[in-house]
Amino acid sequence: MASFATDDDWWRDAVVYQVYPRSFADTDGDGMGDLPGVRARLGYLAELGVDALWLSPFYTSPQADAGYDVADYRDVDPMFGTLADFDALVADAHALGIRVIVDLVPNHSSDRHPWFQEALRGERRDRYIFRDAPNDWESVFGGPAWTQTPDGQWYLHLFAPEQPDLNWENPEVRAEFRDILRFWLDRGVDGFRVDVAHGMIKDAGLPDVGPKEGRQVELLGDERVPYFDQDGVHDIYREWRPILDSYPGGRMAVAEAWVASPERLARYVQPDELHQAFSFDFMMADYHAKSFRTVIEKSLAEAELVGAPTTWVLSNHDKPRHVTRHGGLARARAATLLMLALPGSAYLYNGEELGLPEVLDLPDELRQDPAFKRSGESRDGCRVPLPWTTEPGCGWREPWLPIPEEWRELSAEAQQDDPGSTLNLYRAALRLRKEHPALGGGTLRWLEVPAPELREDVLALERSPGLAVVLNTGDEPVSLAGLGLSGEVLLSSGPQPDPGAVAPDTTIWLQLGSATS
């Protein structure tokens, strides 16, 4: 492994593991995960084979939106530990060769932030967005994006009312976040995941969106709206990039950006802005060979526009887990093996390596997602704590969301020594990804599927040198010979009853033994 000080391009093909701290591992028995819990499981992440971990927010917060409402950007919430715990976590992770990325939430603060408390007293309101009358903007979580204060003015919150939007036209806000970046970089973090990276700047004059069918949130990713993806947001990232570049070891930033076109997304990863942007199209693709190919081609084209690496993701803390979304574990494993074979970097969400499904039957009174209260939609089902042991409680005592009893059989302990487990599939895939010269960075070449009737269900590609990847989303086995392929199967996402064929809902990695067509 190259040292942290010299491997500036580590992020271009890294596998990054998202830790949702409250649901990862608990050390003090209060039912809420914490930073010491993450630190205690670093060996698990090292054995899994990830290059970095991304910590969702652990900052001081009243937890109106699971920590995405930050009251103090420079401290750890007591429910998660202390700054000393954070420092120890970073030191131990680095000793294991694992980098640490932290979430940054710049579009909005908590309503408990000292700045907003001043604003409510009528002081320094220019650090937020206040006006005398609301416009027609809607909250992403449902309902209006404006709340009235006792003195009659209204403030903007594109998410929950407890998350007032900061005014990024104010130089003081910009200076504050430059200092926040340096604070965490000085503590050794290797990068930032930028929450709502398409936010911050609003169209001048705050014009109405105008009449639309359905909720405004349904426009995101398809149409531009006056409060997201404004050109001025790129000036912010051009201010941040020199700060990141001034630290050794390839400090980086990845954008959570929902935009309307590949060209718009490419602007976020220009050489003087952010390093990566998530490929949400891949996460949202249907489970079908044709759908996967369409979004892969689009994502590669986006990246090629500016020479940035692609950044793949199948699940995160905001979307249903892909076991459920794709219709079962076999399909989820097949999609994962496809993703991990693609050029660029990949982001994993904690628990997906255990094959966890979405929890669909949580009692309403236990749900904590603020979107549930406003729109009836809930992200709690993908945030249920991870099962670690086969014992009752799965290694937790009164977890903040109940863990299904059947997850004892999906626990890390249950899967540890099972060669066919999903956990060991991930371990094998990440090990091969590091070892095989064709995987990680580079390019891909699509392989022809000769039979027209198979082209809807089979995706085949080559990673040079000498590795073919074949996904079969159809109902029948597909002959490798019929695809013009032969060689050794290095890894399969599922059982292969016929070694000369790819079973339904299966992806294989094939070391080529003959010329490809």
From TrEMBL:
Q: Which CDD domains match?
A: AmyAc_OligoGlu_TS
Source species of the chain: Nonomuraea roseoviolacea subsp. carminata
Q: What class of enzyme is it?
A: hydrolase
Q: What Enzyme Commission number does this protein have? A: 3.2.1.20
Has the keyword Transport been applied to this entry? no
Record protein name field: Alpha-glucosidase
Q: Which Gene3D superfamilies match?
A: Glycosidases, Oligo-1,6-glucosidase, Domain 2
Family matches, as InterPro entries = GH, GH13_cat_dom, O16G_dom_2
Q: What residue stretches are annotated with the Glycosyl hydrolase family 13 catalytic domain?
A: 18-383
Assigned protein family: Belongs to the glycosyl hydrolase 13 family.
